[in-house]
């Protein structure tokens, strides 16, 4: 090996980055559990045939290998196909509707870029076995609460329905076969803008009048009730689009009932979100601070989860991309800024005070305070303070002969430099309350 290096597209996360990532995951877990979701973990490795035939063109991105026993295996591409396997395999043990969350790495042989990696972590939340619009609304509400809890100041969740785009194509005089081209063109709206999409539509063979009509429809904007009213009026002749509008109306009314502020979501008929397996609601959360794309996305996919069980199992869910959340939060300065886990650093005045300092560290730890103990009793105090500061500890504590005689501790606030004598008996309470 010429150079010591990690694999391209797979990242090492040093402590400061890990603290932010752990904060993100803990927050998502807390919100999921508040909504009554239960945890699931499945292996990173699956039989290759479990993943094959589900991803369309993306199948070429799967990492495959043969193990020592000659089995054909693959690293999971996401946590959705493994969920489908789990649902089929444990059918008798799962109580539907089943709300599960799952967190872990997935692997895709992509060309690495900012926000796109070959090993990346997803946090999924899905409701398996319900076609109720309340299930869709719970997922969207959960995502809004999670992004708010992470401190995102101005995100918006765009909602759309697969049958709306179909309806837009049909209402513009196109048949089902042409709808795919319309879908792909609209998918590029945020990247190409209206003029670019129009060109793309014309290139895919859509007549100029139809292209204009499609563009007018997908650009309808406003709050959810207003957009839905306008779509209902314009797509009144297409039965499936009318049903889609009714479904989106039920979902957005449920969001009001769940207490999600109106500025957090909108109906955006231009949101296409991939072709593959969505059957109903689709959504993406966006923020102006991340113009590169969405923060996360999801939707309803009623046919995918049941493919191993060989029956339709209606499911709605989403995947938070931890790496993307991490990149954006780092850029915005959101989340904990800590460089380490320790709050307190117990110094050792000199070799004779080692036992006393160990007792103090024990006491702080027993009180639930993250505490570092100096490991070199002969090091000058000034150097120990410097180490405490570099570790990101808020306080350094000193127990010298005078303090021991008076049953006090010197507490130095490393942020302000202020030093005070504190009664030994109240030192834990003082550190905890600061
Ligand atoms: P998908 O499974 O493609 O719907 O992706 C769901 C979420 O996972 C996306 O919104 C991204 O945040 C994240 N994601 C997908 N692919 C990657 C990747 N290659 N690198 C980092 N994050 C990814």
UniProtKB/TrEMBL annotation:
Function: Required for the first step of histidine biosynthesis. May allow the feedback regulation of ATP phosphoribosyltransferase activity by histidine.
Protein name: Histidine--tRNA ligase
Presence of keyword Cytoplasm: yes
Leading EC class: ligase
GO biological process: histidyl-tRNA aminoacylation; L-histidine biosynthetic process
GO cellular component term of the entry, any: cytoplasm
Residue span, Aminoacyl-transfer RNA synthetases class-II family profile domain: 9-325
Subcellular location: Cytoplasm
Catalytic activity annotation: tRNA(His) + L-histidine + ATP = L-histidyl-tRNA(His) + AMP + diphosphate + H(+)
Pathway per the UniProt entry: Amino-acid biosynthesis; L-histidine biosynthesis; L-histidine from 5-phospho-alpha-D-ribose 1-diphosphate: step 1/9
Family as reported in the entry's similarity comment: Belongs to the class-II aminoacyl-tRNA synthetase family. HisZ subfamily.
InterPro entries assigned to the protein according to its UniProt record, in alphabetical order: aa-tRNA-synth_II, aa-tRNA-synth_II/BPL/LPL, Anticodon-bd, Anticodon-bd_dom_sf, His-tRNA-ligase, HisRS-like_core, HisRS/HisZ, HisRS_anticodon
Keywords: Aminoacyl-tRNA synthetase, ATP-binding, Cytoplasm, Ligase, Nucleotide-binding, Protein biosynthesis
Binding site for L-histidine: 78-80, 108, 122, 126, 273, 277-278
CDD domains, sorted: HisRS-like_core, HisRS_anticodon
Highest taxon above the source species: Bacteria
Organism in which the protein naturally occurs: Candidatus Viridilinea mediisalina
The protein's assembly and partners: Homodimer.
Record bears the keyword Endoplasmic reticulum: no
């Amino acid at each position: 090996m010429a150079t010591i290096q990690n694999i391209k597209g797979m990242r090492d996360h040093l402590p400061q980055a890990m603290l932010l990532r752990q904060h993100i995951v803990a927050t998502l877990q807390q919100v999921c559990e508040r909504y009554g979701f239960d945890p699931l973990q499945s292996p990173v490795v699956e039989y290759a045939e479990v993943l094959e035939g589900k991803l369309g063109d993306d199948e070429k991105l799967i990492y495959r290998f043969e193990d020592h026993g000659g089995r054909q295996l693959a690293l999971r591409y996401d946590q959705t196909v493994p969920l489908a396997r789990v649902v089929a395999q444990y059918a008798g043990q799962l109580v539907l509707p089943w709300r599960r969350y799952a967190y872990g790495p997935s692997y895709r042989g992509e060309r690495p870029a900012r926000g796109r990696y070959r090993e990346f972590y997803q946090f999924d939340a899905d409701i398996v076995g319900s076609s109720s619009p309340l299930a869709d609304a719970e997922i969207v509400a959960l995502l809004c609460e999670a992004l708010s809890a992470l401190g995102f100041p101005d995100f918006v969740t765009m909602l759309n329905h697969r049958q709306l785009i179909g309806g837009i194509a049909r209402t513009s005089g196109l048949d089902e076969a042409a709808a795919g081209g319309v879908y792909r063109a609209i998918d590029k709206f945020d990247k190409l803008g209206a003029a670019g999409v129009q060109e793309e539509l014309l290139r895919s063979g859509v007549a100029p009048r139809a292209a204009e009509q499609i563009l007018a429809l997908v650009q309808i904007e406003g709050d959810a009730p207003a957009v839905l009213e306008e779509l209902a009026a314009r797509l009144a002749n297409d039965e499936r689009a009318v049903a889609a509008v009714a479904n989106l109306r039920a979902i957005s009314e449920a969001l009001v009932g769940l207490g999600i502020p109106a500025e957090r979501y909108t109906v955006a008929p231009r949101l296409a979100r991939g072709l593959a397996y969505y059957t109903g609601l689709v959504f993406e959360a966006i923020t102006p601070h991340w113009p590169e794309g969405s923060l996360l996305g999801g939707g309803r996919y009623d046919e995918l989860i049941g493919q191993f069980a060989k029956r339709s199992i209606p499911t709605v869910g989403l995947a938070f991309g931890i790496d993307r959340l991490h990149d954006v939060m780092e850029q915005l300065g959101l989340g904990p800024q800590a460089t380490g886990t320790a709050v307190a650093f117990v110094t050792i005045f000199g070799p004779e005070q080692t036992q006393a300092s160990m007792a103090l560290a024990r006491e702080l730890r027993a009180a639930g305070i993250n505490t570092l103990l100096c490991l070199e009793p002969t090091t000058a105090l000034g150097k120990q303070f410097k180490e405490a500061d570099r570790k990101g500890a808020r306080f350094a504590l000193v127990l010298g002969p005078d303090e021991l005689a008076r049953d006090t501790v010197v507490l130095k606030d490393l942020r302000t430099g202020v030093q005070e004598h504190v009664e030994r008996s109240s030192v834990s309470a003082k550190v905890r309350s600061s």
